[in-house]
Structures are given as structure tokens and as C-alpha cells.
Structure prediction request, 410 residues.
Amino acid sequence: MLRYCCTFQEINRLLQIEESTPRGVAWLRLGFRPFFLAALAFGAISMLIWLGVFGGYRSLPLAGLSGMVWHGHEMIYGYSMAVIAGFLLTAVRNWTGVATLRGIPLLLLFLCWLLARLLLAVGDAAYLYYAAVFDLLFNTGFLVAIAVPVMRTRSWAQAPILLKAALMAGSNLLFYLGAGGALESGIVVGLFSGLYLVLALILMLSRRVLPFFIERGVGYAVQLSNRKWLDISSVVLFVAFWLADIFRPDSLPVSLLAIALLVLHAMRWVGWYTPGIWKKPLLWSLYLAYGAIIAGFALKAAVYFLDLSPYLALHAFAVGGVGLMTAGMMSRVALGHTGRDIMAPPAVLTPVFLLLVAALLARVALPMIDVSHYRLWVVVSQGLWIVAFSVLTLRYFPILTQPRIDGQDG
Prediction:
């Protein structure tokens, strides 16, 4: 987990598809297609279900889980894992030069993910076991699918990614053990570990690609740097932060570690700044999402020192750090890997990203200003999120389901 290296050639291969003859159904040619489309649609649908539950109109059994537990699990192991699977099944192919799942094998992996989501939403408590089986089959199958190319080519620079994927599977297992009554703290440990692992993966990949995206996307010469000491220390402290918040939640050590992470990541964030990002929605969305994670560390520190609600930090991480970052990353990767010009993205992306920024402010900032209307702010945030992901789903459906416009495979 301490090695954050990615050469220019590796990043360039991530953004380019090798020329080859197109084969198979378009939406099953590469992992990003089914999983990004599913993530976008599920992002809207799952939030709509949560809006109904939050408003007291629960009509689905949710596998016997409470609405809040179901919401937390599905945003981490449903939505986020779909984005991660789509991204890494595509990226590992380009990092290693070895083909990843496509066609029927990809479809089977996707169906495991989909069946778990359906069973957890419409199945009653008796179906929790079957949901767990399909969900853990998906976690395991995904891990194997990215591990085989990495090990075959001895691409050990990608080992931290494999470790995080394995830990995600283990955390999901802990959740199901807790939900099934076999492990008392399983639900809490599984959910918080899952969230922090998603954040760890986002921070690692951001360190790899965000400076590259900015340097080549602003339209003028700029050179952004990374500091090795900062990379190593931020990883070590994040692991300590994760473990401290699991075993001593919202304690003084957690707040002190959050302050240290706030300082380190703010240094990196400021070092990546250049004014040209504000003209490019595919840049400022990712930059602001990274800033939301930094804000999450600040709010996490305030839980102990200012007695602030821990849910504010959690949603700064989730709505901004995960939601906005993944929406921006999916939008960019889908364009590049279907042969489209990432310098001329769909015009709808600007209002969509602004909706997600507004959703973040409604969920985190407004409750701090006016807590008396807390439920209203939550509903407003949910509504903005639903609209944003619905628009993205409709706009990217043809992009993700039709062949590449340049005639290449992928």
C-alpha cells in the first residue's frame, strides 16, 4: 500500500484502447460499459428508494435490513463497487496488456452484482443469505479477474489495488455476518471499513491520474508534482485513521489523525491547482471532489473538538468524495474509451456536476447553518442527487451501449 507509482506510459495506456477488431456485443466488450451504466442507473434508483424510506414511505422489504443500513451498504458495495469494477477491469487491461473479462464471463460477473442488488431490495429477510452469496461471488470474481493479469505480468505496482479489493471483499463478508446475527459488530465494521477502503482507492488513483489530467487538459504548459514523503505518510496515517475509527470511533486519536490527513492532503491539493481547471468540467469536478474529502477530514476532527454530528463528515466523504469523484471519473473514462474527444465533453456535464455540488452543500453545509430544517436539507440533497444521476444515465446510455465511434475494439 506504500507504493504510489504510475509512469506516463501507464497512464497513457489507461486512456487509450489498443487497435483491434471489434468482437461481441458492444456493451460487453470491456468492463466499464455494463458496470458504469449500472452504477449510474443504480445511483439514481437506490437514492429514490432511500428517499421513500427516509420520508416514511418504505414499501420494499430490503432483505430485513433497516433503511439506513441498506442505504449505507448499497452506496458502498452496490454503487461504489460497480464504479470500481468498471474502472479497474478496464484499467488493468491497459496497465498489463492482458485482456480482462468480456462477453459471457463479464456478463456472469455483472449478473452476480445485479442479483445481489435485487435480492437486497425486493427480497425479505429470508433472502439475505442468497444476496450474500451473489454479492460475495461478485467480490471474489472481480478480485480474481484483476489479479490474474497483474500476477501473470508481475505488475507488482498494482499490488496495492489487489489488496484493497481483497479487503473490500472481506469487509463485505463482515457486514453479512453482522446482518445475519453471527458477528455482533459486523455491520458497523463492514460499512465503515468499506467506506474508508473506497476513499483509500480514490485517493490512490487520484494521486496517479489527477495531475496528469490537469497537465494535459488545461490547454497550456503546467507541471504538477507529487512528493514521495507525502504519499507514504498519507497512506500510513490513513490506515491508522481507519483502524482508530473502527476501534475507538470519534475519539481524540481519530480527530488528531484527521487533522494530520487534512494538512497532508491540503498540501497536495493546493500543489495541483492551476486556474485553467475552472474552464473544464471534467477537471474542476474531480478537483472539487478531492477538496470534499479534505473537508471530510476537517469535519471528522470537529466531531471530537466541537461535538459536531459525525454524519456530516460521513456525507462529505460520501456525497462529495465518492459521488462527485466517481461521476466525473466515469464521465471522462467512458468518453475516452469509446473514441470520443475528452476535450469536448457533453454540455450537460456542467449542470450535472453543479447539481452534485449543490447536493453536497445541502447535505453537509446547510444542516450546520440551520439544523432546524435538517430533514428538509436531506430531502433536497437526495432530490438533487437523483436528478443528476438520472440525467447522466440518459446521456451516457448510448455512449456505453453502442460501439466505439472510431471502429476500434473496446
About this structure: The two ends are 30 Å apart (CA to CA). The chain has one domain: 15-401.
